[in-house]
Specification:
The complex is a heterodimer. By secondary structure, chain A is an alpha/beta fold. In chain A, 35% of the residues lie in helices and 24% in strands. By secondary structure, chain B is an all-alpha fold. Classes of the chains: A alpha/beta, B mainly alpha.
Chain lengths: 254, 322
């Protein structure tokens, strides 16, 4: 499908999702430019993950629209979005646990190359699938774990594999939901570094959701602070860091 | 495929080929029936072990295949009666694929126990139809099945049943096993495994989960249909007994017994289950009690099925050597 580069890579229009009385996402208008790393921060329950779920069509919005390169993709199934280059990772690790790390990546690469609808071709003889899977393994420093079951590798590596699966899909826009959650404090930085390197190297656009400001500040071009389903503030990392309102609500400083 | 597998398969097929002259006629017949069930079980496992969908109603397809053969042989059809086994198989593939596509499209909207029970509902419905539409299906008596021609040759009854048809079924069994092996080792097979492991994530890496589940369902339906179509001439009669919740449960048992996460599991399971059943039936009328007991024993001792247990043993053996 042709992509219109003159349009913003991602735009949302009046996106809304209420859970009963709770306004999880309340009239969010968002624009993401190609090549930037945008971080969305906010305290727990501010609607960050719900926003990501709406964009990736994990859940349907009550109202509002999502545009990907100017095309209305609000009702597209996730598999179709992934084929177009809009992919996401998950806060709670979401892998194929009973398959090896290599098989996890192969499944994603095969899907991206449109090979999964071939029931009689030999997977192990498909050099393109193998080559690209090995490349992703190397970029994310997972090569040593290739033959281990995804369910058996340490949590930090599982988080990285969750993100690596997105890269195996040859993405244009990648949505990362708390890529370092549940990772020990000492491991957070190296995990984040591995992810940032990949983002820069592959030149993809990234939207990162994170509740811990400090993790994302160093890596972001732009930061959005959310509170009670609305965008509270938006700007360069330094601006957001200095913003009184954000400090009070997001970091809990008085 | 590794050379050692190819050798093992050639040896296996050669062994299977010299059996009929050696074995008593009855056992040749039993082995033929076993292979029909092995085809049924192998097909079932792409849905169950591979895609992670447990159906309690797959004997529906065994019945569709068997009744397709019987229906096309009915004397009422006059000059249009079909006796060519190849044509009958083609017809069974078509009917089971069509029924599988229709029923599957409804079923795959659900997963887990709901999927299992909707399938059970369909096999009960089908069973009731077979009983009630007796002017078409022959009711409880079912329909007679005549001797078909195999590759254009019509054998006398005894030779057909205990000799010739054995080779015919063996050939089809080998072909269908090879086809399934190709599917398992293809990117499509990997996608099905991904769906079993995590349907949500599979969708997010670009696999249209619903359509792939339906594809796996139709493949399992076709294998069931072929199994039923080959069984019908062996049995000489089709009756509603072939399509019940019991025969639907048998195939689940075969897969669990043999090992649903191993390619050869369903085949081994079908051989053990059916032959155990036959042997136990010989010496007691309480065969279902003994069969149930041995099933419980197998599941408790070999939780990964017999092939699952064997493959860990083999892997451990080679692991220690290296």
């Amino acid at each position: 499908m042709a992509i219109d580069k003159s349009e913003k890579i991602l735009r949302t229009e009046g996106l809304k999702k209420y859970f009963g009385e709770v306004k999880a996402v309340d009239d969010v208008n968002l624009e993401v430019s190609e090549g930037e790393i945008l971080s969305i921060i906010g305290p727990n329950g501010s609607g960050k993950t719900t926003l990501l779920n709406l964009i990736s069509n994990m859940i349907e919005p009550d109202s509002g629209k999502v545009f990907f390169y100017g095309r209305n993709v609000t009702k597209w199934p996730p598999s179709k979005l992934a084929k177009m280059g809009l992919v996401r990772s998950f806060q709670i690790v979401n892998l194929f646990d009973g398959m090896t790390v290599m098989e996890n990546l192969k499944a994603a690469v095969a899907s991206n190359l449109g090979r999964t609808h071939r029931p009689f071709s030999n997977l192990n003889k498909d050099e393109e699938i193998t080559r690209r899977s090995l490349e992703i393994l190397r970029i994310f420093k997972l090569s040593e774990k290739a033959e281990t079951l995804a369910g058996d590798v340490p949590h930090g590596d599982r988080k990285v594999l969750d993100v690596a699966l997105c890269f195996a899909l040859n993405p244009k826009l990648i949505l990362l939901d708390e890529p370092t959650s549940g990772v020990s404090t000492s491991e957070k930085k190296p995990v984040m570094q591995r992810i940032e390197e990949a983002v820069r190297k592959e030149g993809v656009t990234a939207v990162i959701v994170e509740h811990d400001m400090d993790i994302v500040f160093g890596y972001s071009n732009r930061v959005i602070a959310m509170h009670e389903g609305k965008i509270l503030a938006e700007g360069k990392p330094e601006e957001i860091k200095e913003n009184e309102q954000v400090r009070k609500i997001v970091t809990g400083e008085i | 495929m590794k050379p050692k597998y190819i050798i093992a398969i050639i040896v296996g097929v050669l062994l299977a080929s010299i059996l009929p002259p050696v074995l008593p006629a009855y056992y040749t017949y039993v082995l033929s029936v076993t292979m029909c069930f092995a085809i049924y079980a192998l097909g079932y496992n792409i849905l169950f072990g591979r895609t992670g969908l447990l159906s309690f109603g797959h004997a529906l397809y065994l019945g569709v295949g068997a009744y397709t053969v019987a229906a096309l042989m009915r004397p009422e059809l006059g000059p249009y009666r079909v006796f060519s086994m190849e044509l009958l198989l083609a017809a069974a593939i078509v009917t089971s694929a069509i029924v599988g596509l229709g029923v599957g499209a409804l079923c795959i909207r659900y997963t887990r126990i709901f999927f299992g029970l909707i399938n059970l509902g369909f096999v009960m419905l089908w069973h009731a139809l077979l009983l009630k539409l007796y002017h078409i299906t022959g009711g409880t008596d079912g329909l007679p099945v005549y001797i078909p021609s195999t590759l254009g040759i019509t054998f006398p009854y005894e030779i057909f049943r205990t000799f010739a048809f054995y080779y015919y079924i063996l050939a089809i069994f080998v072909i269908l096993t090879y086809v399934m092996w190709r599917i398992y080792n293809s990117p499509f097979g990997l996608a099905l495994k991904a769906i079993r492991e995590n349907g949500v994530r599979a969708e997010f890496i670009g696999i249209p989960v619903g359509r792939y589940r339906l594809a796996a369902y139709v493949i399992s339906a076709i294998y069931g249909g072929v199994g039923g179509a080959l069984w019908a001439p062996l049995s000489g009669q089709v009756s509603p007994d072939i399509s019940t919740w019991l025969t639907s449960g048998d195939v689940v048992m075969m897969n669990v017994l043999g090992g649903m996460f191993n390619f050869a599991g369903p085949i081994v399971g079908a051989f053990i289950f059916y032959n155990l059943k036959i042997q136990i039936m010989h010496f007691t009328t309480y065969w279902s009690f003994i069969l149930g007991l041995s099933a419980i024993f197998f599941v408790l001792v070999f939780p990964g099925g017999i092939m699952g247990w064997l493959s860990t043993k083999v892997r451990r053996f080679y692991g220690q050597k290296a």
